[in-house]
Design goal:
The chain has helices at 34-39, 91-95, 127-132; strands at residues 12-18, 22-29, 46-56, 63-73, 79-82, 101-109, 113-122, 138-148, 155-164, 170-173. It is mainly beta. It is globular, with a radius of gyration of 15 Å. The N and C termini lie far apart (34 Å).
């Protein structure tokens, strides 16, 4: 998991990026809006990851390649795992404003990964608002666990994780889970 990185403006942050077929561990140069601002920047569809080490999704702990720089299409990123909550960025950017927040434990499914964690959202939980409100594609969950659907033994835990809401198949509140 990412460590020893600074959340300060225009600094380098180490993070894990999960795409449909790869896990990429590397560094990104942050703007003053943090990683959430970088990922949600609508003026750029691509992301450069420096000192990038790649691993195939079916063997995420076996690094297979190392590049000085790789370019990634942001829309193909399912999740970004961060070492600490502070690395997300300024609270207003990370949470979308200064309103009072509720904490909602959720389960999220994408075509490749499942995520569990707590979504902080202003007001009453509303799936349609989370999925379409504003122009942010990447939403933060805290205390997150990412599991590969076809390889359930692969789990990644993170204090904070951004997920791509455009890749979500379904989202359920943990409080509404029924045991059969």
């Amino acid at each position: 998991m990412p460590t020893d990185a600074s959340p300060e403006p225009n600094r380098v942050l180490i993070a894990d990026f999960y795409t449909p077929s790869y896990r990429i561990v590397g560094k990104v140069v942050l703007p003053n809006t943090g990683i959430v601002g970088l990922m949600n920047d609508t003026t750029n569809s691509f992301l450069e990851i420096l000192d990038a080490r790649t691993a195939r999704a079916h063997m995420p702990s076996k690094l297979v390649d190392h590049y000085e720089t790789v370019s990634v299409v942001k829309s193909q990123i399912f999740a970004v795992a961060l070492g600490r909550r502070e690395f997300v960025g300024p609270l207003a950017s990370a949470r979308g404003g200064y309103l009072r927040l509720g904490e909602y434990p959720v389960q999220i499914s994408t075509p490749v990964y499942e995520l569990q964690g707590s979504l902080e959202w202003a007001g009453h939980f509303d799936f349609s608002s989370i999925m379409v409100q504003g122009n942010r594609d990447f939403v933060t969950i805290y205390g997150a666990t990412l599991t590969a659907i076809l390889i359930p033994a692969f789990k990644a835990e993170s204090e904070a994780m951004l997920f791509n809401r455009r890749q979500v198949d379904w989202l359920g509140l943990t409080s509404q889970h029924l045991d059969d």
